[in-house]
Amino acid sequence: MSKFSSIMKVAVLTGLVAGSVSVTDASTFASSQSQNGVIPTKMQAGTVIEYDSSNQMVIIEKGTPIVSSITQQNTEKRTLSKEEQEKLAKEEELVKQIKAEAKNLPVYNIENPAPKPGLKVVYDGEGYIKKFIYPEGISTMAYKALPRGTRKPAGTYTYGKNNNKITIAEKHVLGEGRFTNFTDTEGESENTLKKGDAATKGDIDNPKYDTVLDARNLENDKFANVTKRDNGELPDATLDIWKDGVEDFGVKWSSSVSFKGRYYYSF
C-alpha cells in the first residue's frame, strides 16, 4: 500500500469515528481521482497537497473534518414583499434574455490543471479547491487577471465541482454558482476592503473597479448589491464576498460559509 493510500485510510477511519459522512465521501472520492491522475476536487477542510518529483500526491497539511454550513445559513425561501416579487420578476426576465443571447455562442468547459511535480493545491473550509500554487518553472500557468474593465469573449464558461457558470453576452454578464467569502484586508487598488465589497473571477470576468453588481442568494431569495473591489482565482466559485457581507444575503458569517447564488451587471 502506498504512503498516500495509508494516509487516506487513516483519514477515512478518522471520519467514521467522528461521525462525519461528508469527510469519508470526500476522502474516498479524492483517492479515486488521484488514481485516475487528476487533482481531487474535494478533500478534508483546509487540506494542502503537493505533487512530488514522481507526480504522486502527498498531503503536506492534513485537513479537518468538514462541518456542513447548512446550519449556518437561512436556506428557507422567504415570503417576498410585492416590491421584491416585482424585482425578482424583472430579474428573471433579464436572466432569460441573457441566456437567449448566449444560446448560439460557444460554451467553454474549463478543466482543472493536470497534476505536475511541485504543484500545490489548497482546499477551503468546505473542502473545495481554493487555490493552485505553481512552482517557479511553470509560473506562467498561475492565475492572472484580465485587464480591469474587460472580460473573456462572449460565450458561456463552466468550471469547478459546484456547477459554476459565467455567461457573457453582448452587454451583460451573468454569473451562477457558488458564492464564497474571503477575509483579505486589501483589494485590487490597495483599497481597504469593507462590508459590501466582492471579488469576481478575474481571469474570466474582471469588471471595472467600483462596479455595482446585482446579486441574489438563490437558497433564500435574498437580493443585495455588492461592489466589485477585488478579483481572484476562484477555481470553484463565481463570486467571493468580503467577510460579513454575506449577512446582506441572510446568511450568518463564518470563514467557511458559502451558498448558491447569481450575480449580473451591464457593461
Summarize the structure in words.
This protein is 19% helix and 31% strand. With 267 residues, it is an alpha+beta fold. A 6-stranded mixed beta barrel has the order 9-14-10-13-12-15. A 4-stranded antiparallel beta sheet has the order 2-1-4-5. The chain has a two-stranded antiparallel sheet with strand order 6-11. It has 3 helices and 15 strands. Helix 1 packs antiparallel against helix 2 (21-35). The chain has helices at 3-18, 21-35, 82-102, and strands at residues 48-51, 57-61, 107-110, 120-123, 129-133, 150-151, 155-159, 164-168, 172-182, 197-201, 205-206, 211-217, 222-232, 239-242, 259-266. Residues 1-25 have low confidence and may be disordered. 36% of the residues are buried.
Q: Can you summarize this structure?
A:
This protein has 3 helices and 15 strands. The protein is of the alpha+beta class.
Structural key phrases:
alpha+beta; 6-stranded mixed beta barrel; disordered N terminus
List the helices and strands and how they pair.
Elements: H1 3-18, H2 21-35, E1 48-51, E2 57-61, H3 82-102, E3 107-110, E4 120-123, E5 129-133, E6 150-151, E7 155-159, E8 164-168, E9 172-182, E10 197-201, E11 205-206, E12 211-217, E13 222-232, E14 239-242, E15 259-266
Parallel strand pairs: 3-7, 9-14, 10-13
Antiparallel strand pairs: 1-2, 1-4, 4-5, 6-11, 7-8, 8-9, 9-15, 10-14, 12-13, 12-15
